[in-house]
């Protein structure tokens, strides 16, 4: 049974993302448009499960399916859409069986790309909400130490509310001509 654990932010997570992004870009080739660091490890100062989340934008999502051997050679388990239409999901564990990386691959222009990036950018720009999220994650990890479902379900309402705020914030910034992303 996997223990749900969140740990203080580790600045090395950014470097781990950069290294893995280079490997993934090489494996997926010219289909890659961009690779983004998402999830809690991309938000400075908050507690997170120590799993690096990568969002890979590609030109053609179907072409990703032909790259299964390349992704497996990097140690990834190929999960297909895994509950989200239009996504290709990959996960990687270390030799001890502990998850280290997750990849969410979408075609460029997908609303899921915008949603994930808006959430990340909103949390970086709104440290009060980020601290609240961090505390919620710590509380849920203590409350559900052996239930990833309980932990995830406990975050759901908060994430949906931040998604709403992030979408409004992004819309307001784009209408005013101001960049929605923090510097």
Compose a concise summary of this entry.
The protein is an alpha+beta fold and 183 residues long. The C terminus is likely disordered.
Folded structure, characterized:
- The chain is an alpha+beta fold and 183 residues long.
- It has helices spanning 12-28, 61-64, 68-73, 111-125, 127-143, 148-176; strands at residues 32-38, 52-58, 77-78, 88-93, 99-107.
- It has a five-stranded mixed β-sheet, with helices on both faces.
- The radius of gyration is 16 Å and the shape is globular.
Largest sheet: 5 strands, mixed
Q: Estimate percent helicity.
A: 40-55%
List the uncertain runs: 178-183
- The succession of helices and strands, N to C, reads HEEHHEEEHHH
Number of helices: 6
Which structural class is indicated by helix and strand composition?
A: alpha+beta
Strand coverage percent: 15-25%
Trace the largest sheet across and list its strands: 1-2-5-4-3
Q: Report, as a whole number of angstroms, the end-to-end distance.
A: 41 Å
How many strand elements? 5
Global morphology: globular
Mean pLDDT: 93
Cα gyration radius (Å) = 16 Å
Keywords, please?
183 residues; five-stranded mixed beta sheet; alpha+beta; 6 helices; 5 strands
């Amino acid at each position: 049974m996997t223990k749900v654990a969140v740990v203080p932010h580790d600045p090395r997570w950014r470097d781990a993302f950069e290294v893995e992004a280079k490997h993934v870009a090489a494996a997926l080739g010219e289909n890659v448009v961009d690779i983004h660091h998402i999830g809690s490890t991309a938000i400075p100062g908050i507690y997170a499960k120590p799993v690096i989340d990568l969002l890979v934008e590609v030109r053609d999502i179907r072409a990703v399916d032909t790259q299964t051997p390349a992704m497996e050679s990097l140690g990834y388990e190929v999960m297909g859409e895994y509950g989200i239409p239009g996504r290709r999901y990959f996960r990687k564990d270390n030799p001890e069986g502990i998850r280290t990386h997750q990849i969410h691959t979408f075609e460029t222009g997908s609303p899921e790309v915008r949603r994930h990036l808006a959430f990340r950018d909103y949390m970086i720009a709104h440290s009060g909400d980020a601290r609240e999220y961090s505390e919620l994650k710590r509380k849920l990890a203590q409350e559900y130490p052996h239930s990833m479902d309980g932990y995830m379900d406990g975050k759901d309402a908060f994430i949906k509310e931040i998604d709403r705020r992030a979408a409004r914030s992004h819309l307001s910034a784009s209408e005013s001509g101001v960049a929605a992303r923090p510097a």
